[in-house]
Each structure stands twice: as structure tokens, then as C-alpha cells.
Specification:
- With 724 residues, the protein is an alpha+beta fold.
- The protein folds into 2 domains: 280 residues, Alpha-Beta Barrel (7-stranded beta/alpha barrel); 235 residues, Beta-galactosidase, Chain A, domain 5 (Distorted Sandwich).
- 32% of the residues lie in helices and 27% in strands.
- The protein is built from 20 helices and 28 strands.
- The strands form 4 sheets. Strands 1, 2, 3, 4, 5, 6, 7, 8 and 9 form a 9-stranded mixed beta sheet that branches. It has an 8-stranded antiparallel beta sheet with strand order 16-17-18-19-28-25-24-22. Strands 15, 20, 21, 23, 26 and 27 form a 6-stranded antiparallel beta sheet that branches.
- Helix 17 runs antiparallel to helix 18.
- It starts with 5 loop residues before the first strand and ends with a strand.
């Protein structure tokens, strides 16, 4: 009788986001990467397929030569295969074709040069798959890819049928697909090793062509929760079955000692066994991701439905066809994510234009210098495509402000390189300023961008005439890298019943106008829980003029709207204009509020003037350690230095505010001038309550300054913002 066997594909994925803290790299290396590779090295007969994101591999090459040497030894003895993918771990679905190929080639070249290995497979960031993937992966010279078994469910393929590889195509270009096994993913390292071995035994058959692919984040084996103890510390592994032996050596030993488990790399399996059949997969990611991407209200219901179907034996077949959302919807769910993505597209378009202009240059030495700078700019753009801050699920993702800051830093760096190139070609372009109408957000509506050699100002007339990005180029610093306090499904958790979770009704953008009552408190403004009397807060403003005068760029906007009477449902018409003047490192905004004179509405207008105020949102972001942020005002005399801490809520009568980021040596200063002597400034931190792999966390997302000014029949005030 032929002995049953199973081909076991053991894959580990090593990744850190671009510009993650060096202390995190060191901590993860110590707790996970080093002990994991040390154990793999000891078990020569057990084969592994490994994936490293390019920036992490760079760090390891620079800082951990012993680690790299072990990888080289294992590569030479044929124990490991290293697969490729995007160098900086992008989501391929949202980057252009050229960038897909360039990122994959960059990582494949590094692996070939350092380890002498031909790269045949690709890792897909967050296992995001779209049906056109076979074309570009094939063009990049790759033969296979790893996806979730979740991707196969809606095709009617059962769990038993996922014990094989399949082949798919796009435009006639083929690609082998390996499904990841869900059961093993949840067993390891949380359960004793015998449970994983028992599962493999059930999957084994006499024919011997089946495979089970186990994949894990390397960080899961040592960094998550108590996994370092479970995986590597003697006496702290699972007692049942493993008698306290650390999970990793116990698991590898089981694989080594059971001859019916055929340890094999993915390329070896590819060479030995044909695909089971042709298959076409729908757009997909892993099941949790498809839940996280859903709009918050729908996500709450979807989670309940999914659980009820999965737990019901009679409805399991229905569960197989239940699909969640589409990964790209994160760009809708979080406008800040869309902002980063469209900024990336905008900057790369500028770089492509710069490349095209090379055709007009006939100076070979100059062309050589420019080509080097263009390569540097492309790498900055590729770094900004790192996926981690474009989404949110179990990990902080888009809520991790320092990762968003990294994206903007690299994109602004690329813009500065483009400026350098332009000034080399035309020295008159060393200083410039211009205004561009553009559908930046790709929502079919015009935005306006003021760009200069000092800053970028991004204006959305269709969202209350607000500024949603403000880049100070000398420091490669976006001062509007704020994040709105969006409502999340997990905010309904019973664990949060005692916590007040603050959420916003509107995106935290600069120059958003609010009409509020005299009685509104600092706490209500901070919580965004006041009654809005106007209809200007997120409505369309008409752009009446956009022009450049010398070194000044000007955008003029207006809106005819109305304000509600505090004592009735009646509304009074009012016209508000916003004129934005940008010059060097200064932005001046002139706001004019003019009520229509309607004799029969005099009492209504009197009540509006008596009881209501106009407030202007001025959010901004400082990066780094909040203990290094300070503030001051000409109207506030601080006797206690503790009060100068920027993140403390505060309210005062005044017209001046200045904040300082000590780490970056950056000042953000606001001055307000008006005939009105009734200006109150409120200051509070923008804090999100975010669920992460470490539990619920309060994460700083910026500061909001809100000047509140008494309404008048004809009110004009000037707001001056300086960055230096």
C-alpha cells in the first residue's frame, strides 16, 4: 500500500514599513527575525520560502551581516528560496504599470546580486489580487504568486481542492497560483504543534501531488503578544503535546521527523507537479481585509452576518460565497489615504514631464547629471508607495501619523529634485509660483494647487473652500498631515463604554467655516458636538478668480448661502468670500461676510448678530515627539511653562498664535486682524481612538486652532499664516 504524503510549503514574510523607527527594527530583529532564522538554519533538511521587503533587506544588509551570511549559506545549500514582489511593498492595484515593473525588478536584482538566486515567485502586499495581475507579473519575469484560499471561495473551489496549485491567465499570459491554507494560519503558533501535524495528515493522500501552503508574517513568530515566549523560550511553549518546548523548534522537528511530510520550496513544487486546472479569480484580499474596507455602518452588519454563516453547519456553503469589500475602497473610506495616493500620481506625472523635456537638451554632461537626479526622484516616489499607511484594519495603518508623514516627505523630496532639474535647465526657474486648476482628487470636480519653490497649497472649493494640503518644501513637511476622527465599527465595543470617543462630522481641513452660538463651549468645539447654523461648512464655493501677480498667487472664492435664526426655522441670506493670497512662506486669507439687507427680516438679522459667531478651522500637524512641541501667544502670559505644551486644550481672547516644532526647527504662526475686538481662540489636540494589534490606543493626529469671531452685518477679517 502506498504511504500517504503531503507536500508542505513553508513560507515566512519579513516586512517593516518604510521609515519605521529604528528601535522597532532592532526590537523585531531581536524578538523574531534572528531567532527564527537561527532555528531555520539548524534544520537543514526542512525547506523554506522567504520573502523580505526591499527596505528591510537593505537594513539587514547594512546592520546584520551575520544574519545575511546565514541566508547566503542556506541559499547555497538549496534550503531556501527567496521570492520577490514590490521593493517597497506597494499595493500593485493602485500604482501604474511602469512602477509595478520597476519595483519588482529592483527587488529581484537585489536578491540575485546578494544571494545568487533567481526570483521566480512574487509576494502580493496584503494578498490584494486583481484579475489583470498575470499580465504584469509575467512581464516582470515571474512564474507564480501566493494568494489567500479566500480568493478561491467564490469560484466554487472547496477546501479539499485548495490542496493544489492552479494556473490563470490574462491577455494569454499565464501565472501559477498557490492558495494559502487558512486552517494552519490560525493554528500556528497559538496551538500545540500536533494539531498542525494532524491537519497535514488529513490532507495527505496516496497520489502525493497535494500541497499545503503555510505562510506567516515573521513578526507573528516573536513580536505579537506573548509569541516570543511561545516560540523560542524553553518551558514556555505549549504544555499539551509539546511539553513546554518552544513552538518553532518543536514544529520544525515534527516536519523533519515525519517522512510523509515532504518539505519543499514553491519552485520545486512548480517543477514537479502541473497545475490542477485553469482558474480565474475575482478581485480579492484576505477575508479580514474585505471586512475592514467596508463603510463603517455596513461593516458592523457584515461582521455579524459572516460569523453567523461560518458558525452554522447548515449555512457553511452559503458562507463560501459571501464576499466583503474591494481594497481600493480604502481610498474612499479615508480621504487622507486618497490624498496621499493622488499626490503620488500628481508628482510622478510631473517627473514624467521632466523626463520628456530631456529630449530638448543636447548637452550630454547636463543630461548625465539630470538622469541621476531623475533616478533619485523615482526612488522617492517608490518609497511613498509603501502600502502600510493607505489602509486600516487590525494595525494602525492610516492612523499611524509618522507613516503618513513619511509618504509626504518622500513625495516632497521628489518635487524638490524636479525643481533642481528645472533650475539646471532654466536658471530663471529657481524661484517660481503658479496656480493650476486640476481634478486632483479624481472626483470630476476642479481643485486648485498653488505651487512654488517654497510651498504647495492644495485647495478644494467643493468642500467648503478648504485647504487640504500645505507643504513647506525646505523641510519636506506637510503641515496638513492631519487625520480626521472618523467613526469606526469597533467604537461600539463594550470595552469603550466608559470612554468618550470623539468623532468628526467633516474632514479636518484648513479654512472650514462654522457658524455657532455664543453658548458653545471649548469642549463642544473639540467634540464637534455643536449645532451648525450655517450652510457653508462643506458646501461648494465658486472660484471667481485664480491668477498670478508677480510673486503672488491669488484664489478668490465666494458662496451665497444662509444662516438660521437662533429662535426660529427662518434663515437669512448671506454672502461669504474667501480670498487666498500666497507669497513666499506666507498665506493671507481675507474673509468677508455680508448679510443681505431685508427690511422684514431685521429682527432675525439682529438675533443672528447678537447670538452667533463665525469660527474658522486651522488644523495643523507637527511630526515627532509632542513633548518637543511648544506654543505661545502675544496675548497670553505664561507663568507656568507646563501651559506651553501644545497638546493641552486651551482657550483665550486674542488674535495671535505661534507653535514651534523643536525637532524640525519649524514655526507655524497665525495672526488675525479685524475691527472686531471679540476674537476668541480655542486650541485642542486631534486625537483618534484607534484599535491596533496592541489594543485600543489614543493616537495624536494634529492640533486644531479655531478662532471664533462675533458676526456683524458686514464683517471682514484677515488671517495670516506664516511657516518658517
Amino acid at each position: 500500500m502506498t504511504q500517504k504524503s503531503i507536500n508542505f510549503l513553508n513560507v515566512f514574510h519579513f516586512h517593516q514599513p518604510v521609515d519605521n523607527f529604528s528601535r522597532v527594527f532592532e526590537d523585531v530583529y531581536k524578538k523574531s527575525y534572528k531567532p527564527l532564522i537561527d532555528n531555520i538554519f539548524k534544520f537543514e533538511d526542512v525547506k523554506f520560502t522567504l520573502h523580505f521587503s526591499g527596505n528591510l533587506l537593505e537594513w539587514l544588509l547594512k546592520n546584520k551581516p551575520d544574519f545575511i551570511e546565514k541566508l547566503k549559506v542556506m541559499a547555497k545549500r538549496g534550503q531556501i528560496e527567496i521570492i520577490g514582489g514590490g521593493y517597497y511593498e506597494p499595493i500593485f492595484a493602485i500604482i501604474p504599470y511602469r512602477d509595478k515593473i520597476a519595483q519588482m525588478k529592483k527587488l529581484s536584482d537585489l536578491i540575485k546580486n546578494e544571494f545568487g538566486l533567481e526570483v521566480k515567485g512574487a509576494w502580493l502586499s496584503e494578498r490584494v489580487w486583481e484579475p489583470n495581475y498575470p499580465s504584469f507579473l509575467n512581464d516582470a519575469g515571474l512564474k507564480y504568486v501566493i494568494v489567500d484560499d479566500n480568493h478561491f471561495r467564490s469560484t466554487g473551489i472547496t477546501e479539499q481542492e485548495t490542496f493544489y496549485s492552479y494556473i490563470t491567465e490574462d491577455e494569454g499570459k499565464t501565472l501559477r497560483i498557490f492558495p494559502i491554507n487558512e486552517e494552519l494560519r490560525y493554528l500556528t503558533p497559538w496551538k500545540p504543534t500536533y494539531m498542525s501535524i494532524d491537519y497535514l495528515k488529513k490532507a495527505a493522500d496516496e497520489k502525493g501531488d497535494r500541497c499545503v501552503l503555510f505562510i506567516s508574517d515573521a513578526e507573528k513568530m516573536g513580536v505579537w503578544g506573548t509569541t516570543h515566549q511561545i516560540c523560542y523560550v524553553e518551558g514556555q511553549g505549549h504544555e499539551e503535546g509539546d511539553e513546554g518546548k518552544p513552538f518553532i523548534p518543536a514544529f520544525f522537528e515534527q516536519i523533519q521527523n515525519n517522512s510523509w511530510i515532504k518539505s519543499i520550496t514553491l519552485s520545486e513544487y512548480l517543477n514537479q507537479f502541473p497545475a490542477k486546472s485553469l482558474v480565474y479569480l475575482p478581485t480579492a484580499s484576505y477575508d479580514k481585509m474585505e471586512e475592514w474596507v467596508l463603510p463603517t455602518d455596513i461593516r458592523k452588519n457584515f461582521k455579524k452576518i459572516r460569523k453567523s454563516l461560518k458558525d452554522d453547519e447548515e449555512k457553511k456553503e452559503t458562507y463560501q460565497f459571501l464576499r466583503g469589500g474591494f481594497w481600493r475602497y480604502f481610498l474612499i473610506k479615508y480621504p487622507e489615504s486618497n490624498n496621499m495616493h493622488k499626490k503620488m500620481i500628481h508628482v510622478r506625472n510631473k517627473l514624467i514631464s521632466t523626463e520628456e523635456n530631456l529630449l530638448k537638451i543636447d548637452n550630454e554632461l547636463l543630461i548625465s547629471v539630470i538622469l541621476k537626479k531623475i533616478a533619485e526622484a523615482w526612488d522617492e516616489i517608490y518609497k511613498a508607495q509603501c502600502n502600510d499607511c493607505y489602509w486600516h484594519g487590525l494595525f494602525g495603518g492610516v492612523y499611524l501619523q509618522f507613516l503618513r508623514f513619511s509618504v509626504y516627505t518622500h513625495l516632497i523630496n521628489a518635487e524638490k529634485i524636479i525643481d533642481d532639474i528645472n533650475s539646471l535647465v532654466n536658471p530663471k526657474m529657481k524661484t517660481y509660483i503658479y496656480v493650476t486648476p486640476i481634478d486632483f482628487n479624481k472626483d470630476s470636480k476642479s481643485d486648485y494647487i498653488i505651487e512654488s519653490d517654497v510651498f504647495n497649497v492644495y485647495i478644494n472649493p467643493n468642500d467648503g473652500g478648504t485647504i487640504f494640503e500645505l507643504d513647506y518644501k525646505p523641510k519636506s513637511y506637510n503641515l496638513l498631515n492631519t487625520l480626521t476622527r472618523w467613526p469606526e465599527a469597533y467604537h461600539d465595543s463594550k470595552k469603550l463604554e466608559k470612554m468618550e470617543v470623539l468623532v468628526d462630522r467633516f474632514r479636518r481641513s484648513l479654512l472650514r467655516l462654522r457658524i455657532l452660538h455664543n453658548d458653545v463651549t471649548l469642549e463642544q468645539i473639540q467634540a464637534d458636538q455643536y449645532y451648525e447654523f450655517g450652510d457653508f461648512v462643506d458646501e461648494n464655493f465658486n472660484v471667481t478668480s485664480s491668477e498670478k501677480e508677480g510673486k503672488i498667487a491669488i484664489i478668490e472664492m465666494e458662496k451665497m448661502g444662509s444662516i438660521k435664526d437662533p429662535d426660529s426655522i427662518e434663515r437669512h441670506p448671506v454672502r461669504i468670500t474667501k480670498d487666498i493670497y500666497a507669497e513666499e512662506n506666507e498665506i493671507e486669507v481675507i474673509l468677508r461676510i455680508n448679510f443681505e439687507e431685508i427690511p422684514e427680516n431685521e429682527k432675525i438679522l439682529d438675533r443672528i448678530i447678537k447670538y452667533l459667531n463665525i469660527a474658522v478651522d486651522i488644523p495643523f500637524f507637527f511630526n515627532g515627539d509632542p513633548n518637543k512641541f511648544h506654543w505661545e501667544s502675544k496675548q497670553v502670559d505664561f507663568k507656568d511653562k507646563e501651559n506651553t505644551k501644545l497638546l493641552e486644550p486651551f482657550q483665550y481672547m486674542g488674535s495671535h498664535f505661534k507653535a514651534y516644532d523643536e525637532i524640525y526647527d519649524l514655526n507655524f504662526e497665525i495672526g488675525i486682524s479685524s475691527k472686531s475686538d471679540s476674537i476668541k481662540i480655542t486650541k485642542f489636540p486631534i486625537i483618534t481612538y484607534t484599535y491596533t494589534d496592541e489594543g485600543y490606543k489614543e493616537i495624536y493626529q494634529g492640533i486644531n486652532i479655531t478662532p471664533v469671531i462675533k458676526l456683524e452685518k458686514h464683517l471682514e477679517f484677515h488671517l495670516k499664516i506664516q511657516i518658517y
